[in-house]
Each structure stands twice: as C-alpha cells, then as structure tokens.
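BUG: 3D viewer hangs when loading the predicted structure for this chain

Environment: internal workstation, default settings.
Expected: structure renders.
Actual: progress bar stalls at 90%.

Input used:
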Amino acid sequence: FRAFFMNKNIFGRAMMAMVRPFDPETAHRLTISALALLPQSAPRAVDSVLRLSVAGLDFPHPVLLAAGFDKDARAAHAMPRFGFAGVEVGTLTPLAQAGNPRPRLFRLSADRAVINRMGFNNGGQAAAVARIAQMQAKPGRGLTGINIGANKDAADRVADYAAGVRAMRPLGDWLTINISSPNTPGLRALQDEGALDDLLAAVSAARGGGAGSCENAGPPVFLKVAPDLSSEQIDGVVRSAGSRRSLRITLV
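Structure tokens produced before the viewer hung:
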C-alpha cells in the first residue's frame, strides 16, 4: 500500500479512474472533500534560486494555486504538500450564493482543461472565516490569499467588496479584488475608470489605507481584471490603480 500511495503516477491514474465516471462538478466536489481530510502541510523545500518576492510577500518558488479550485477554503491547508508555494481561496462573496444553474463546468478532455461558468458559487465569507483562521494559526503553513467578489443580487457591489476586505483583511496574506468574471452580469462594468476609482477608494478605506495612513496598514491587494480589455481600458485601469498611493495594488 505504501508503494502505491508513494507512486504519484499510479496514484494519480487511480484517482482519475475513480472520479471520471462522475460529472465534472461532482468529481471536483468529491476531490475537495477528500483533500479536506489531509493534515496541514508546509511548502516543500526547493532550490533557493526559485525564490521571489512580490508585493512584500516571499515565495519559495513562483507556482501558486489560483482561486476557483478551493472556493470555500476547505482544502487549502493541504495543498502545499503538492508543491504549491501559496494558495488563493475563493472567490468568496459576503453572502452564500448558489451560482449559475447546472451544468456549468465542462470537460475539454483533449485539451486537459475545463470550461468554468460557475458564477461565484460559495458558502459565503462568514462560513470560510473559521477555516481560514484555524489554518493561519498553525505554524509552518503556506501563504494564503483570499479572492473577494460581490453577490450577484447585491444592490451595491462596491459595498460588497469593502465588506469582504474588512472581513478578510486580518486573515489573508494578500487579497484579490475579482472584477473579471464574465459569469456575474454587470460585474465587469467596475473595470470602467470612474467606477473603478470608486471601488478602489472603498477598498482602500476598508483595508486601512485611507488618507495619511501607512502603506503597510493591511495586506497587499491584487486587482483581477479581464484578459480581453482594450488598450484604452487598460490605460484607465492603470490610472485608477496608480492613483491609490496608499493602496499597494498589483494587476493580474
């Protein structure tokens, strides 16, 4: 049995054979449930030449697990054992929401990829706080980022992002403001320069980066924007982000 579990190729093929009969979303849910049972682990030791520093964060190497895999922070504690230098959980919204109707996750087997139309489905920020806090309190942990979104039916999405920053600021090594999703109608309008100015002002205040405050008042903030913006739109995003000198922000 030890030889079986230590052989990653055999173990990986066995796991794929077990989940393949299920639809993609069920397979993903079962995988997260299994990973959640593993003990917390620290990042693996790697060659020091791979180390890098981004926004004041020191990573042992540049390979991180992006948001979307572990939406509710159920398995992030175990992911460093698989070689990740850090994990971003979420997207988490202030209130729980079901997301888009199923089916909404589709396999592209030939490309070894999936199409994701989930729509920010998650159990809400309050439900994730205890799990993240427990993980962050243990020694030897990996770095953890928190991806923040707005509820689909929110009357004030800027207020949703500010609430998310206030709730997650004490817990995340970094925060990501996700305004790139095409699966939440109207969300990408927040990328427009005027709307983005208002959003970043609210995020800055919620993080503790208001007028006269220290740049290091809270965790670094990353702004997740759509990959298909025009050159003019990108210029506007950069202007808005650059004007927030008290808010250390990086575009992704």
